[in-house]
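Re: How this chain folds, sequence and tokenised backbone to follow
How to read it: Take the token row as a discrete description of the fold.
Start of record: The labelled sequence and token lines come straight after this line.
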Amino acid sequence: MVMKYHNPVLLKESVAGLHIKENGIYVDVTFGGGGHSREIIEQLGPEGKLIAFDQDEEALENSLQDDRFTLINENFRYFGQFLKFYGIRKVDGILADFGVSSHQFDSAERGFSTRFEADLDMRMSKRNELSAYEVINSYDHRRLRTVLYEYGELRNADAMAKVIVEEREKGAIKTSSDLKMALQRFLPKHKEHKILAQIYQAIRIEVNQELAAIKEFLLQTPDLMDKGGRLSIISYHSLEDRLVKRFIRTGKFEGDVEKDFYGKALVPFTKIGSLIVPSKDEIAQNNRARSAKLRIAERL
């Protein structure tokens, strides 16, 4: 049974950014519903190859029946070692569409959406031992504050963490409504949805170690990309986009860019074009596209 997924965001733009060669080797590290992969496969010739990754077991049900296609049920942070396992040393392009898939948001039992009553879960892979329940019920005050402040960019992170610790002493915080009830004082009606979304984002990033995975993934790309190969990366919030932007500009996440004897920057990629965002029409058809940002870079 094929799971229902919404249309992929920035589909034409992100695939066009790869500048596909008919017989090239490409990687889609966030397979999801397979929309981007289908578009790539359509543009490949008989000798082309597409390797896709998705850590969510449910994404396997969308696998493409094509001899040129391989789907690997793993987190994209490990994509380099799997490419080597399959005998692939260099690729011509890599596409990434970060964040939570529409299917995951719409599956109430997964606990990703503020719209549903659900157990605190938020795991992108059910093999992951850490869940939202563990974060909320076992992290100490300081660790909770750090998660809420750094990943949710919440000004009241310290007070929120204190309240969570106090409330769970009365009984475990097990469900989305338990969490909402515990933090009710921080959720004024006119801002409730926005603040809840920030809280959920913070917990989800911690559960899935999303930013660490993005860093590990990006740092592998220069060694696995042929000269002239393309990166096409869609981000959904400033924390992700900041990492992508900095990596494309400097090849690292901290410190100044390295330079050669003549002062020329030693960077693995050069950006292609300007930042791309969805059109008004796309946002009207798919509201989840509203925060998407696409950056494209080419291997030097």
Notes: The chain has two domains: 11-103+210-299, 109-208. The longest helix spans residues 192-208.
